[in-house]
Amino acid sequence: MSALDALPSVRASVEALGLRAHKSLGQHFLYDLNLTQKIVRAAGAGKGDLVIEVGPGPGGLTRALLHSGAHVIAVERDPRFAPLLQQLTEASGGALQVRQEDALQLDLGALARPGEPLKIVSNLPYNVGTALLVNWLTQTPRVWFSMTLMFQREVAERVVAQAGDQAYGRLAVLRSAVADAHLLFGVPASAFTPPPKVDSAVVHLVPKADGACFDDLEALQTVTRAAFGQRRKMLRASLKACAKAAGMDVVTWLESAGIDPAARPQTVPPEGFFALARAWRTAQSRR
Ligand code: SAM
For ligand 1, atom 18, which residue shows the shortest CA distance? Predict the structure, then answer.
């Protein structure tokens, strides 16, 4: 029996310390070993990998990650979990490092280790899940090898959405610029303690090859903010101010990107927005 297997169950440890979940930190815990192992298998985490886990909380998913043989850096903001995570660190034989900090401030580049693929695996705190994903998508250099992330189902659908889907918007376009994504499986609210109000889903993301990425994310975000800020309007109306600020005529700009000026943003595929952002940057830098 390994030192990890000898630890009391996660649920028993939480109850022994009388720890209550804090809603403000998005705390919903996983105690089901089948589910935590399923997430780790979906992440393809194992020996030789460096896993960054955001929000280990009492350490249920962390234990499954350690069982896979991966090295784990777990970043937790709530100091109340420190005693449980310390026990886990001692039982891990050097495989776990815990950092008590805000994951929103995390510099992935400083954590990366040569020769160890960096995989982000997390049951994300819902209140900052989207902000964390946007951070990781936009941070350069891009040091992550994959991300396997649990979101609220509605956010998961926004991450993987394709043009024409109801959930398609800024997040899907930004994601498409740097990564391919699949929704792997849903998780009912009843799988968590305490249960959240909505169901969840796990998404797997892998970065696109260097040549296939669209890298001017600042220009892309400027254009998509204007376009999706007024979703119901035709692009020739919603992008008018953006075009004017860069010294362009909005109809000429849209047509030269191959987009119907009367189209609405949710029908335009990511490549259309990349073309708009490229032309916007060129026009703007001439001014
Ligand atoms: N991984 C545990 C599990 O699956 O049972 C807990 C997941 S819970 C949904 C989210 C965790 O993220 C909580 O432990 C919470 O304290 C932590 N958290 C919330 N905001 C955070 C932040 N900004 N940085 C780091 N951890 C955070």
Answer: 55
